[in-house]
Amino acid sequence: MTVEYLDAGDAIDQGTLSGKNGTAPAVAAGVTYERILDARSEPQNWLTYYGTYDGQRYSPLDQINTGNVHRIGPAWMFQAGASGMIAGASTYAFEATPIVVDGVMYLSGWDGWLWALDAKTGQELWRYKHAVPYDVSLCCGNVNRGVAVARGKVFMVTANAHLLALDATTGKRVWDRTYGDVRAGESATLAPLVVKNLVIVGSSGGEFGVRGHLDAFDLDSGEHAWRCYTVPKPGEPGSETWPADGEAWARGGANPWLTGTFDPETNLLYVGTGNPAPDFDGGVREGDNLFTDSIVAVDVDAGRIRWQHQCTPHDVWDYDSISECILFESDGRRLLAHFDKNGYFFVLDRTNGELVQVTPFVDRIDWGAITRDGKVTPRKYPDKEGEPVHFYPGPAGAKEWTHAAYSPRTGLFYVPVQDVGATATRRRREFKESIPYWGAGVQVDAHDMTGSVSAFDVNGEEKWRWRNEVPMCASVLATGGDLVFAGEPTGEFNALDARTGEQLWQFQCGSGHHSSPVAYSVDGRQFVAVPVGWGGWIEGFLPGMLGAGHGSALIVFALPG
């Protein structure tokens, strides 16, 4: 039987139906690679995803400090609203990191939304809406974590694995490139990273049995520059860690679904990779399964892996190693810090991948153990069909994708910790394209859980801990005012003393936090901005709050004007 397909026409441009069809000042035209390299010298801006290439999530701004933070309050608020197919609490979340350039803020949302705002007043300057098909396969919620800005353009990925370049002044599309196969279950959620003349992005979709990859595109033309697969094919280095027969490698996962960090001295991009597929059934993929659950260092010009360190070999707990790689120096060494979902804090020499130290950062770890020399010994895992196994931490990890911060002033790392377990029961399933390929039924504990913001020095010694009754599921921000800002799932936004952990200020935002706050200033006035909108893969990290209220607001705080 012949099936004829009809052109459905173009989707309605929802961005033009808002009454917000203005323009933004042309500030993004002056954002160059050189400026992003030296972003720390522009504390009034937040030029790239982590603020700077090193991933420290640290702002030198100190107008708001330990002495006056108790006086800050809302300066303005932006309501993103909710539209599209919102089926329940886990459908979407506001997970973005705002980018700020000389008084203009660029903010992405779920379902293909992007806004340009006046960073001083919150006035909307323009909005863009990408038409995302309803049938895109998404593992863990309809989310987007941010944008990149350079040379007059704003870059954003979409849930159906497109990379878009928009005119930063008008919000009009300049070019559109597809870099993932939605029919196979690929998608995209991360914030792009601009390095030199390239826009670098990574794929999502490991829960559907796809092969992860990084891609680089030319800033101006959108031409594809390179692709780096994070699972080797037969004959390539690392392929010996996969079964020699069959196609386990071709559906092996290792998706790099979070933004990497970059060191111009080594010319390396540092990226964490995701879990293997199927997540919990290791019997169909014997071996260590490189380069899953790994930190990989990629030559940014060639798109090739120069070294790797695997944090969880042969993962059967869903412990992605996608978390940020924070770059810092200590005792003359160029180091990299990484807080892994498996509950361990890794420090590596970022020039060659040598392990410097590894220490636990959460109280309850019983899936296995990692010794100080890096030896991994599994202890509890779902290896028998139909037999439940409980382990700590659960599949969302001791720290989820949400980011830690590092303050050069205090020399401390600040980590949002999740202390919650889960039960996995292995259920072997045949692979089918675009169908979830977990290999188990999983139930995350709804009780007996806790969380904290914990501070560690470079040697892995815990210096203080601010305790919370539920896991901490949002990124933290460190500032030059010796403050750490941290949001809670229950809606509170807190300011902690960066040296002691004492709580100095709190504001109830009306919905849970699952995003990344930033600091910036306009006309000499410092602001702290945080997107607020509870949701995403709640059943994976805090099922006891599946019924909590949704939200979709950006709240911006400052001292009284």
Strand order of the largest sheet: 1-32-33-34-35
> What summary fits the major beta sheet?
5 strands, mixed
Oligomer: single chain
Q: Could you say which structural class the secondary elements and strand pairing correspond to?
A: mainly beta
Overall residue-averaged pLDDT value: 94
Show unreliable segments. none
How many strands appear in the DSSP assignment? 38
Gyration radius, in Å: 22 Å
Helical run tally: 2
Q: State the share of residues found in helices, binned by percent.
A: under 10%
Mass-distribution shape: globular
Protein name: Alcohol dehydrogenase
Family: Belongs to the bacterial PQQ dehydrogenase family.
Organism: Amycolatopsis bartoniae
Keywords: Metal-binding, Oxidoreductase, PQQ
Overview of the molecule:
This protein has 561 residues and is mainly beta. Helices cover 2% and strands 35% of the residues. The chain has 2 helices and 38 strands. The strands form 10 sheets. It has a 5-stranded mixed sheet with strand order 1-32-33-34-35, with no helix packed on it. The longest helix has 5 residues, at 33-37. It is globular.
How would you briefly describe this protein structure?
The chain is an all-beta fold and 561 residues long.
Strands, helices and their partners?
Layout: H1 33-37, E1 58-59, E2 73-79, E3 99-101, E4 104-108, E5 113-118, E6 124-129, E7 148-150, E8 153-157, E9 162-167, E10 173-178, E11 193-195, E12 198-202, E13 213-218, E14 224-229, E15 261-263, E16 268-272, E17 294-299, E18 304-310, E19 326-330, E20 333-339, E21 344-349, E22 355-360, E23 368-370, E24 376-378, E25 388-391, E26 405-407, E27 412-419, E28 422-426, E29 440-444, E30 450-456, E31 462-468, E32 476-479, E33 483-487, E34 492-497, E35 503-508, E36 518-522, E37 525-532, H2 538-541, E38 553-558
Parallel strand pairs: 1-32
Antiparallel strand pairs: 2-38, 3-4, 4-5, 5-6, 7-8, 8-9, 9-10, 11-12, 12-13, 13-14, 15-16, 16-17, 17-18, 19-20, 20-21, 21-22, 23-24, 25-28, 26-27, 27-30, 28-29, 30-31, 32-33, 33-34, 34-35, 36-37, 37-38
